[in-house]
């Protein structure tokens, strides 16, 4: 990764989200940039495009992965939870320990691939208590916090809002809004989930509206950052739109594209 330039030289930051186990491309994500920003979702629990990949099929097989994807895609969440519960009961063992062990293996690989410097926040499928164990000295983890990169202030808010999916790092609306408030006015507002705008939260492949944040939308309108960057929605109806003075950008599904989004000034 290039050193951060002094004086009036230009700064280039690469931004990624929804890595979901793509360590191969993560190693190269910072090439040509002064810093890498990661907006979370390092873990691959289940690949909806390839049901043989992820923690779930590793534990229960591809056929069961096919079934749970079918149920979730049909929004039959209660049936999906019942199906999953039966699989765990049949498997025996400590469910939490099995998942944590698998996540730890992925985190060891993901964090080792991060370049220096990396600034990262959590996605909704991440397990925040484990991040401090794996983040090296070149990786700064931020959530409800700010940092200066190349003379611009970046604010970071991680996690997602509560949904029927019950992923590991979903929090209440008030807690999320408090983190947005703590960040305050910034040049670049970095979150995992998008603001609550229909075009930004609708996934054209899953054919459903994901959860966006109203508090984030209000903050964008009120504080007018130059950019609002996010991920979470893998195949959005609209990847980029302007809200007032702010350019809102879904930086892409890194797990499938392997390409960072670049911000330069």
Describe the fold and architecture.
This protein is an alpha/beta fold. It has a domain of 174 residues: Purple Acid Phosphatase, chain A, domain 2, CATH 3.60.21. Helices cover 35% and strands 21% of the residues. It has 10 helices and 15 strands. The strands form 4 sheets. The protein has a 6-stranded mixed β-sheet, with helices on one face. A 5-stranded mixed β-sheet has the order 4-3-2-1-15, with no helix packed on it. It has a two-stranded parallel sheet with strand order 7-8. Helix 3 packs antiparallel against helix 4. The longest helix has 19 residues. The protein is globular, with a radius of gyration of 18 Å. The model has no long low-confidence stretch (mean pLDDT 94).
Write the layout of secondary structure elements.
Elements: E1 12-16, H1 23-26, E2 35-38, H2 55-60, H3 62-73, H4 77-91, H5 95-113, E3 118-120, H6 128-134, E4 139-141, E5 145-149, E6 152-157, E7 160-161, E8 170-171, H7 173-183, E9 188-191, H8 198-201, E10 202-203, E11 208-209, H9 214-223, E12 227-230, E13 240-243, E14 246-250, H10 254-257, E15 261-264
Parallel strand pairs: 1-2, 2-3, 3-4, 6-9, 7-8, 9-12, 12-14
Antiparallel strand pairs: 1-15, 5-6, 10-11, 13-14
Helix pairs in contact: 3-4
InterPro entries: Calcineurin-like_PHP, Metallo-depent_PP-like, UPF0046_metallophosphoest
Protein name: Metallophosphoesterase
Domain Calcineurin-like phosphoesterase: 12-236
């Amino acid at each position: 990764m290039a050193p951060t330039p002094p004086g009036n030289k230009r700064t280039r930051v690469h931004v990624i989200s929804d890595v979901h186990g793509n360590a191969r491309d993560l190693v190269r994500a910072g090439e040509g940039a002064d810093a890498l920003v990661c907006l979370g979702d390092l873990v691959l629990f289940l690949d909806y495009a390839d049901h043989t990949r992820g923690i779930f099929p590793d534990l229960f097989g591809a056929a069961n992965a096919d079934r749970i994807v079918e149920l979730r895609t049909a929004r039959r969440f209660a049936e999906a939870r019942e199906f999953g519960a039966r699989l765990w009961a049949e498997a025996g063992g400590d469910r939490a320990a099995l998942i944590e062990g698998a996540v730890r293996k992925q985190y060891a690989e993901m964090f080792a691939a991060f370049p220096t410097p990396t600034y990262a926040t959590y996605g909704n499928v991440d397990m925040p208590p484990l991040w401090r164990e794996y983040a090296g000295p070149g990786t700064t983890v931020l959530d409800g916090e700010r940092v200066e990169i190349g003379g611009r202030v970046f604010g970071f808010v991680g996690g997602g809002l509560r949904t029927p999916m019950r992923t590991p790092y979903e929090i209440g609306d008030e807690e999320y809004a408090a983190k947005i408030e703590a960040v305050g006015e910034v040049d670049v507002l970095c979150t995992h989930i998008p603001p609550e705008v229909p075009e930004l939260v609708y996934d054209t492949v899953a054919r459903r509206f994901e959860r966006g944040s109203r508090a984030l939308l209000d903050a964008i309108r009120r504080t007018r950052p130059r950019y609002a960057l996010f991920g979470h929605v893998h195949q959005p109806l609209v990847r980029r739109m302007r809200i007032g003075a702010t350019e809102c950008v879904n930086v892409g599904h890194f797990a499938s594209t392997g390409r960072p989004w670049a911000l330069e000034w």
